[in-house]
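Researcher: Let's try something more involved. This one mixes different molecule types, so please make sure each is placed in the same coordinate frame as the others.
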Amino acid sequence: MSENAEDKAVSIPAQSTGSATLTKNAAPGETLLKVTGLQKHFPIRKGLLQRQVGAVRAVDGIDFEVKSGETLGVVGESGCGKSTMGRLITRLLEPTAGTVEFEGRDITHLGVGAMRPMRRDVQMIFQDPYSSLNPRHTIGTIVGAPFKLQGVTPEGGIKKEVQRLLSVVGLSPEHYNRYPHEFSGGQRQRIGIARALALNPKLVVADEPVSALDVSIQAQVVNLLDDLQQELGLTYVIIAHDLSVVRHVSDRIAVMYLGKIVELADRDSLYKAPMHPYTKALMSAVPIPDPRRRSAKSERILLKGDVPSPISPPSGCRFHTRCWKATEICKTVEPPLLELKPGQQVACHHPENAEDQAPHDTVLLTAARDAVELVAVGTAAELAEAERAAAAATEEPADVAKTSGPEAGNAGDDAAAAADAGTEGESPEPTEK
Amino acid sequence: MTELSKSGAAMTEPVKDSRPPSAFLEVRDLKVHFPTDDGLVKSVDGLNFTLEKGKTLGIVGESGSGKSVTSLGIMGLHTAGQYGKRKAQISGEIWLDGTELLSADPDYVRKLRGREMAMIFQDPLSALHPYYTIGQQIVEAYRIHNKVDKKTARRRAVEMLDRVGIPQPDKRVDSYPHEFSGGMRQRAMIAMSLVNNPELLIADEPTTALDVTVQAQILDLIRDLQKEFGSAVIVITHDLGVVAELSDDILVMYGGRCIERGPAEKVFYEPRHPYTWGLLGSMPRLDREQTERLIPVKGSPPSLINIPSGCAFNPRCPYADVPKDNVTRTVRPELSEVGSQHWAACHMTQEQRERIWIEEIAPKL
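Model: All components are placed in one shared frame. Result:
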């Protein structure tokens, strides 16, 4: 990026044709995007009359805010609604219910025409750099398209501006006349980023921006996004399934499960002391690139089965079918997203690392007993031991919760939470070199 | 140290004769080239490794580094293509349990395939036939190699589905692939590949298409099954986390060649090739404190038609100018021993690499 140092002062394309409300820049820390009760149900139609017989509840009532200048990471498994959420806030999909406010203005039901000026401020980077670039257009046409669509003529002409953008994202300005097939995956993703930046947006929604790329290229793109944010003061919503990438890029992180946000917290709180059992399980499932961890007696929470169908999500807490802490209340009452610690919201009746929200309800569901498997990865002896432990746990269900979360007993004890450090089972030997 | 040399497949430099090796699987100077209109694509260009039963070898590399081509080569699946002149050119030797596969009768290799060696593919949806039930597909795989009646084979299919953790296996055996979720399909694929107790199992990106919680289940399953069946396993992946979870030994590929291989601990803790450093540096890690920035490898992987002269990594290597006389751009480095059972192909001296690793790379990771 050194050759782009002079590009730091980025000229903002003339916005005179835009509506007046859009020209003021939100100060850092101000709420840029506010989402309330957002829902998207995709109808399932059947039969001759195409009657609606059900709905895929892809996004089922989520609330969050994105502050100017920050990066919100959204994680979850496939089918949890994270991409649908991304398309809803960019208004590529029409929400079923709820509101989306951008800079204090309700944009939930703006029409195509009314939405157009907004498009300048909200841009998207897509996952697959192969299908998101038109193979028949040159790079110049692709990156220059936003100017033509918005009727904006940047200073010095479109071509010059496109070439400048190309150099901002680390491509050569000579690439102007080339076609997408002449580029590698990483370069294509850079083209997608250049296109998203063309109109100097305030909010960039990136849906899995690096998951189609090789590891070494992934790092280049992650660093590029980082640099651009610092230079241009961008606000990002980054949707990804890779927890380590999300931790690297985000300031705050929302964890989604079956169309709901189950935990929304600052990066450090989330990774050091996750409160929702799902977050905890998700993080413990990430393979750690360290062979010594494997031989160390590490503890991993292995969720059984798959994510239930979003057509008929489980009642109450949606995670109760796979949760090892689930009790009767989880089956019947949906837990609200509450701020249990400053900067950490969680929707759970029996959170980890925090006070139990339903202490009276202690009887575990039968499903909870075998919802989870604790695996001590290591020698065969250890495995057998784990099996024995699992067998014992089936007899004494209450113990499952204890063994699964050693720090669950010390609710609210920050020291214990910090020691937990977001990863399961510290190896006895120091892992740092 | 003694522990390390005992662990893992003993990896020895190949001897130039063609006597059957003592190792269970030995690949010697494997080359797989594809003629195309644009030129010869050297997907694998001289690969050597050995693998013992009960051990796992992890092959890591970026897309286009030749990982999958290697696995298909071992399975003998390249020669099967009917492309006339466009047939893949394969040379070298692949010794499986005392038999050389490349020069063997294709019918003989076909009998081995599925029984002695089996494969788990990346995308279970495209690897399973949509028209047949899971049970039919497993039964077919079993009956090709075993003279049993349909009932026995079906019992075996149910037993395998149960073993890989599919609930209600006696019912699910009659399901079609589309009725299974991604994780269950991958389990069914594993059941199918293990139905004949193969001695060699090749898993090509077994978890790439899966979610992280399901990935953890599948990795666990592969590990358990290996312990139970004692097979030799080759795991091919781009994810260093997956490799660290499963492998005894690691082979890092770049531009169709092996650039570093050794016991997993060595490759992670004392890597001796700048590309391996690059891979470790470009990966955000959950088990470490948050780093300010990732350290990416500049540039992009080489084209296999036009592999850079000298060291294939030289255009991307930050240390390409450390060795004298421009040797990195003219001479292709050979694998040399850098430790016990540990090889790397780099022109820098071992002292230089050790110094760079300890002083410059390791502190930043």
